[in-house]
Structure to design on (1331 residues):
């Protein structure tokens, strides 16, 4: 049960060292580009930028790809590579999808094989999956340059080029080839039509013979490779990595699960190399590792090692509720007894799992995909045991364990600044990080970045939970239904994109006669949350780095707070856990915790 | 320095203290300094003021407490509603209890600020008594004296002050020498000597001249003196918030906003639970839990937002200034005290800081044909007109060893004194008979003698080097082109100074000794004292250059100085502490004035600065860490009516939902007055490394902050239950 997660982490860490060093090498520009690329590269480089120029370049570029993405989806019916004749999506769904892939979230209110043509898969999904993680990475590289006191923050376009061409293209090619070898399809042909012996979901022809089954396929390997590497998570198929074409066997499961955190972990090595200070990176790595290991252990223990609480025998119970009509002002509401169901519970909760991968694969993936902002799934998160379902939410609430490519570290940097501020005061000096004083301006920006995440999760969750928008969209009643709403906004705000599912949030094609009633509300709310939660927490830290870069470095003395020690690491860990708990504990209690402790069966 | 001077027998004893208003005020000032933290009179004043501060326009200045005030008003409105029987009449007593404790929270916060202000004000009042209008005798251009009052004095006026009179304003002695009682300012009763021409020429308004007559040039117009500035600072009238305080205020405001959001979002979430539970149990009316009860949510909000630090923040700042003042430091701004906590490099004068007083002549080493008596006479002649402490100590030594030097004194009286300059590095005298007697730095004297064609006695250089290498200062005395011998001046290290420097090193400070000595002597003393670096043969330019070099590498530099020639360096340093005995120029240039003129005071200033930040950091951490326990008390209480199984979350097993919420609110309110002493006294600073300091504070305030409220809330709950105060 524990071999898989331990192996995944170990191999990832081993591979992250050379990749991280390589990343530092390319982003520091210490390579010599081949002549045919070098010319192009020189044309891309618009010269050194300060943090404002860098942020503006980034925003302008994002606006451009937003527009292009929007056009690709709107024009889907008229564009090539559409063998199955996919029609135009509903406008709100296009908005949601464009926001989702622009912000590296890959929240999918659509279902890939149903709603998208191959052209959209390749030139909208796959293309953005290459570019958006690199945008996050560029921001991180710029921040590191600011922290180490470079005169400028580099050039956004050049960094983008380097990240896409030298890092993700080769990495994704290797992974895609391995996936093809593992059995993933890579084709531009339309759905396969197969004659089956028995009548399946396709129904029967009037003569009683089974209708041919349509099997969706396409350029799967290409999409899956970058989906996993770039913390994207938006699958080719609606079932994501639980689908046998995306994830054919345990070996591809191991490979793709490892790819989830490979680049985020490598950024730590890159950070250490670029700063020439591996101790700082080491402390951050240790804090992230503790958090990551905790979430994996928690998820596996509460899911793979325990039966679903719904299946265990319960005594009959009753609870008093106020009832003014009654004499005592109260009356008893009985909860019926439940007998233990005759299900073998040796293997823990198997609902919603792909048994091909083993028992721990689902929760391990669930933990890692939300530690990072990947959001791909190989098991149904909605079916996780309640407390195991808390794992992915916790990962996304903290949003700084490994995290998205670049942005995960940036989110961690916010906690670092807050930790440095508190700890710095406690040693009696103006707080400083890497020799730069952390003052009012930096704290204003850091708190803004910290504020956005809970605002974007709790605000909309509250609105949807109290109205029909949410209550009439959930698949399950009660605390579980609440978790479904909470999860959706958590996933959007963390730019994760995984779904708890169970929400009726799909409109479908524009001419769909029976769309989900509140799909437009979900599309628009999640779309806005994704955009705001993407850009504010990138730009604010960029501004912090810009402001720190402009400060004179203070020399290190015995009175300086050391940020590369075990003490500080522990303090940082405590700060992250405490702040995280204070922000999200009430929501967690109303969702997964209430479901876990609540009487079963709960609801209707 | 001046205190040591005072003990020399050449000065007359001060007249016995005459009862004067100044004396009494000095006593009352001493008394106020010893007053306990919770002196009844101060408490009363603070209590009154804490109600005045409820005015929204004043409360607004503290955003955290302003939110509490608004919340209290909101809660009271719901209470009235309940009292009128419009909604939730059964919760009336609970609402009343909440209102009371929410209101108490605001009051406690205001009380903490008021108490700190009252303590500052008490200090200021006793100081202000010294500033009342006093008669002054202005010296006119024609030499006549006219009587006026202190407030009418302008900058540049010259006043005559005689024994028994009060100095009418800050100024500089231009004529005469006097012993002065500065106890009104410093609280120190031993008189000090102030004289014209040296670096101890500054006098402060309100001090009492005990002996002699001096002419003082007024340097500060009435109302801008140091006293006025200090009074304004401790009264908080010009309380500018320091950069670190502003940064913290931003963080606190942001946390307040975040928790406002968390609490606000809880309302619809609780409503969601009420809706589905109502449906599930088939109740006729919607089930209602405390999760949608506004006063309860206000209580939750108040418990979550950092009220503890929000309440004490202003008090910590004022108390920091107050502590500086108690150490007899007048800071020109709160910022400079805080910057002191960041100091990396301390520039300390050797004299008076590292060594006791000035170097004194301890030995006469005759050379060539000269006897010890001859050498003594020459040295004495050369030093009679020398006002420096070294010069005086030579005369004293000769006086002690060779009985009378009256003849020499008479000879010197009619001679021409040659002043010491940094260029010649010699001083001496041209006697009427034409003999030129010089004493000074060995290399300078040797050059002088060689220029006159004299010989250098054998073994002289070895003797000079020996003395220098031992940390003593050899002075050569010559008569015309003959070297008469050496006068050896010695430094005596202050006891325990090495430990202090060790302590500073552990705090992360580099100490630099500044001395006019030659490098060899300086090195020896530096090694003995254990300083990290030294500036030998320090000229004002050298000091300035050193400070600039340190600052260029990002360091924060503090220095202490007294002389006019220190002014540029004091102005350049990030923390410049001028001695009160020093010249007006020095005092203007620095950003703090040390009333005791105690050169080791820098160390205390640094500690006050560090303590200030540490106290803020510790209480912030404590305040935020507290919230965890409050969640465990409040969350199950909010939902017990709709999701009863959440009582498993109530790990403290509190009596009832209302009791849980009240206990949390009461804890949140009571912790403020309980922490006032910490806020006023400051968290104890220990000179250990930053890492150990962090460990210690995180353990006490972080971990303690998590654990303490669990215990306290449970105890409060038990008391409430025991007294039958809750349902």
């Amino acid at each position: 049960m524990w071999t898989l997660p331990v192996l995944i982490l170990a191999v990832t860490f081993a591979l992250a060292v050379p990749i991280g060093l390589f990343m530092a090498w390319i982003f520091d520009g210490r390579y010599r580009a081949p002549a045919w690329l070098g010319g192009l590269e020189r044309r891309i480089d618009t010269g050194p930028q300060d943090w404002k120029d860098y942020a503006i370049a980034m925003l302008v570029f994002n606006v451009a790809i937003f527009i292009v993405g929007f056009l690709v989806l709107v024009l889907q019916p008229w564009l090539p590579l559409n063998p199955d004749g996919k029609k135009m999506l509903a406008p709100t769904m296009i908005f949601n999808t464009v926001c989702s892939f622009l912000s590296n979230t890959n929240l999918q209110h659509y279902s890939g094989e149903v709603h998208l043509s191959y052209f959209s898969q390749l030139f909208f999904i796959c293309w953005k999956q290459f570019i958006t993680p690199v945008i996050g990475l560029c921001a991180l590289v710029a921040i590191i340059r600011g922290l180490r006191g470079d005169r400028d923050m580099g050039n956004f376009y050049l960094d983008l080029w380097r990240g896409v061409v030298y890092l993700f293209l080769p990495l994704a090619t290797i992974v895609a080839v391995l996936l093809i070898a593992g059995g993933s399809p890579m084709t531009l042909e339309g759905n396969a039509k197969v004659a089956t012996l028995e009548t399946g979901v396709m129904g029967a022809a009037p003569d009683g013979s089974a209708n041919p089954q349509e099997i969706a396929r396409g350029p799967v390997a290409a999409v899956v490779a970058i989906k996993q590497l770039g913390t994207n998570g938006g699958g080719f198929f609606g079932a994501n990595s639980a689908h046998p074409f995306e994830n054919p066997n345990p070996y591809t499961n191991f490979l793709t699960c490892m790819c989830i955190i490979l680049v985020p972990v490598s950024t730590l090595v890159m950070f250490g190399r670029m700063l020439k200070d591996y101790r700082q990176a080491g402390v951050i790595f240790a804090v992230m590792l503790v958090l990551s290991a905790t979430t994996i252990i928690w998820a596996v223990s509460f899911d793979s090692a325990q039966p679903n609480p719904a299946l265990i025998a319960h005594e009959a119970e009753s609870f008093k509720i106020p009832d003014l009509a009654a004499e005592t002002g109260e009356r008893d509401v009985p909860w019926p007894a439940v007998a233990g169901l005759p299900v073998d519970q040796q293997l823990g909760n198997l609902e919603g799992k792909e048994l091909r991968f083993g028992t721990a694969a689902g929760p391990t993936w669930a933990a890692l995909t939300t530690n990072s902002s990947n959001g791909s799934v190989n098991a149904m998160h909605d079916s996780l045991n309640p407390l195991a379902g808390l794992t992915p939410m916790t990962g996304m609430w903290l949003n700084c364990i490994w995290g998205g490519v670049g942005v995960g570290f940036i989110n961690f940097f916010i906690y670092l600044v807050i930790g440095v501020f508190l700890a710095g005061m406690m040693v009696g000096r103006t707080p400083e990080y890497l020799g730069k004083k952390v003052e009012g301006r930096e704290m204003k920006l850091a708190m803004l970045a910290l504020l956005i995440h809970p605002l974007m999760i709790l605000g909309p969750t509250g609105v949807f939970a109290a109205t029909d928008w949410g209550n009439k969209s959930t698949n399950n009643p009660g605390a579980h239904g609440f978790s479904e709403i909470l999860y959706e906004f958590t996933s959007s705000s963390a730019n994760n994109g995984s779904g708890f599912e169970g929400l009726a949030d799909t409109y479908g094609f524009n001419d769909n006669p029976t769309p989900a009633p509140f799909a437009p509300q979900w599309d628009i709310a999640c779309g806005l949350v994704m955009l705001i939660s993407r850009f504010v927490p990138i730009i604010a830290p960029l501004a912090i780095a810009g402001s720190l870069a402009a400060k004179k470095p203070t020399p290190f003395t015995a009175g300086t707070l050391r940020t590369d020690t075990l003490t500080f690491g522990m303090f940082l860990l405590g700060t992250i856990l405490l702040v995280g708990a204070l922000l999200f504990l009430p929501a967690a209690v109303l969702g997964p915790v209430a479901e876990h402790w609540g009487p079963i069966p709960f609801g209707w | 320095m001046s205190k040591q001077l005072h003990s020399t027998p050449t000065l007359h004893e001060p007249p016995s203290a005459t009862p004067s208003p100044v004396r009494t005020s000095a006593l009352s000032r001493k008394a106020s300094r010893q007053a306990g933290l919770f002196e009844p009179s101060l408490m009363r004043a603070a209590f009154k003021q804490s109600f005045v501060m409820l005015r929204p326009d004043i409360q607004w200045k503290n955003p955290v407490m302003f939110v509490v005030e608004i919340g209290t008003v909101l809660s009271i409105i719901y209470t009235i509603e309940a009292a009128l029987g419009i909604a939730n009449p059964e919760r009336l007593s609970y609402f009343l209890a909440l209102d009371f404790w929410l209101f108490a929270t605001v009051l406690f916060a205001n009380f903490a600020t008021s108490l700190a202000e009252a303590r500052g004000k008490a200090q200021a009042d006793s100081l202000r008594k010294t500033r009342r209008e006093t008669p002054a005798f202005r010296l006119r251009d024609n030499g006549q004296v006219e009587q006026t009052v202190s407030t009418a004095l302008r900058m540049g006026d010259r006043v005559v002050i005689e024994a028994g009179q009060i100095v009418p304003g800050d100024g500089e002695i231009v004529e005469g020498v006097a012993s002065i009682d500065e106890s009104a300012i410093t609280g120190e009763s031993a008189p000090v000597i102030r004289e014209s021409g040296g670096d101890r020429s500054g006098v402060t308004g309100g001090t009492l001249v005990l002996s002699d007559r001096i002419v003082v040039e007024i340097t500060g117009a009435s109302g801008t003196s140091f006293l006025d500035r200090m009074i304004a600072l401790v009264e908080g009238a010009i309380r500018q918030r320091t950069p670190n305080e502003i940064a913290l205020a931003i963080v606190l405001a942001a946390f307040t906003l975040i928790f406002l959001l968390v609490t606000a979002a809880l309302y619809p979430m609780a409503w969601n639970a009420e809706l589905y539970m109502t449906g599930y149990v088939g109740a006729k009316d919607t089930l209602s839990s405390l999760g949608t009860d506004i006063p309860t949510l206000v209580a939750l909000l108040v418990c979550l937002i950092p009220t503890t630090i929000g309440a004490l923040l202003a008090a910590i700042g004022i108390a920091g200034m107050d502590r500086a003042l108690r150490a007899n430091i007048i800071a020109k701004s709160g910022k400079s005290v805080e910057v002191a906590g960041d100091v990396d490099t301390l520039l300390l004068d050797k004299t008076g800081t590292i060594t006791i007083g000035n170097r004194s002549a301890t030995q006469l080493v005759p050379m060539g044909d000269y006897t010890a008596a001859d050498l003594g006479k020459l040295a004495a002649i050369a030093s009679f007109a020398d006002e420096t402490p070294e010069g005086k100590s030579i005369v004293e030594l000769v006086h002690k060893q060779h009985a009378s030097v009256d003849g020499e004194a008479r000879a010197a009286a009619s001679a021409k004194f040659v002043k010491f300059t940094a260029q010649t590095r010699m001083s001496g005298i041209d006697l009427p008979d034409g003999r030129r007697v010089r004493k000074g730095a060995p290399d300078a004297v040797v050059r002088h003698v060689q220029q006159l064609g004299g010989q250098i006695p054998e073994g002289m250089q070895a003797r000079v080097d020996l003395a220098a290498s031992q940390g003593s200062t050899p002075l050569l005395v010559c008569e015309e082109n003959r070297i008469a011998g050496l006068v050896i001046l010695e430094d005596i290290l202050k006891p325990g100074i090495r430990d202090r420097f060790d302590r500073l090193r552990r705090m992360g400070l580099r100490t630099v000794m500044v001395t006019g000595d030659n490098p060899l002597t300086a090195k020896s003393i530096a090694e003995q004292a254990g300083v990290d670096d030294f500036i030998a043969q320090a000229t004002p330019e050298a000091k300035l250059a050193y400070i600039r070099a340190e600052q260029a590498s990002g360091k924060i530099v503090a220095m202490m100085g007294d002389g006019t020639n220190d002014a540029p360096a004091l102005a350049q340093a990030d923390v410049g502490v001028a001695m009160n005995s020093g010249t007006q120029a020095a005092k203007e240039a620095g950003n703090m004035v040390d009333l005791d003129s105690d050169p080791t005071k820098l160390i205390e200033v640094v500690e006050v600065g560090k303590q200030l930040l540490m106290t803020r950091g510790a209480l912030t951490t404590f305040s935020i860490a507290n919230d965890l326990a409050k969640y465990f008390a409040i969350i199950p209480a909010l939902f017990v009516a709709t999701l009863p199984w959440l009582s498993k979350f109530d790990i403290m097993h509190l009596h009832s939902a209302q009791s849980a919420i009240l206990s949390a609110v009461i804890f949140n309110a009571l912790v403020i007055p309980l922490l006032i002493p910490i806020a006023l006294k400051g968290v104890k600073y220990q000179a250990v490394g930053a890492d150990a300091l962090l460990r210690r504070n995180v353990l006490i305030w972080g971990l303690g902050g998590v654990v303490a409220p669990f215990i306290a809330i449970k105890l409060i709950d038990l008391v409430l239950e025991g007294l039958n105060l809750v349902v």
In short: The first strand of chain B starts at residue 135 and ends at 139. Residues 519 and 536 of chain B are 5 Å apart (CA to CA).
